[in-house]
Amino acid sequence: MSDEARPVFDRARFDAQTGGDRDLQREVMQMFLEDCGARVQAIRAAVGERDAARLRSSAHALKGGAAYLSASVVVETAARLERLGRDGTLDEAGSALQQLESAMSDLIAELHRWRD
Q: Which fold has domain 11-115?
């Protein structure tokens, strides 16, 4: 399934993961929203500086938060960036970063709609 056809945020899966606890869901979303900007900025800086180790660790951290939110498109794109950093092959990092930024924009908008 293409990224365009997949939901950026799997509400049913997130609901199952959190046991339907709306307070927990809001707390998890708020923590992610507060943290994700710094994570994406660290990834952006690592790509710009061609810092493979920083790219790996920053992408790994973002991937974990997105996984708990059941945001598979962000998870997969962050995992790709993590692999590029781990392997030290950064030639594709710029295009992967663009995909991540697009997916993050969609995810953040969806989280705000769902949370409010």
A: Four Helix Bundle (Hemerythrin (Met), subunit A) (1.20.120)
In the chain, domain spans = 11-115
At 84, the pLDDT band (50, 70, 90 cuts) reads very high
Mapped onto helix, strand or coil, the DSSP state of residue 7 is coil
Cα(87)–Cα(52) distance, integer angstroms = 8
Q: How far apart are CA 23 and CA 15, in angstroms?
A: 11
Q: Is the dihedral of CA 102, 3, 34, 38 positive or negative?
A: negative
Q: Can you give the pLDDT at residue 5?
A: 62
Which pTM was predicted? 0.89
Please write down the HEC assignment for all residues of 12-35. Answer: HHHHHHCCCCHHHHHHHHHHHHHH
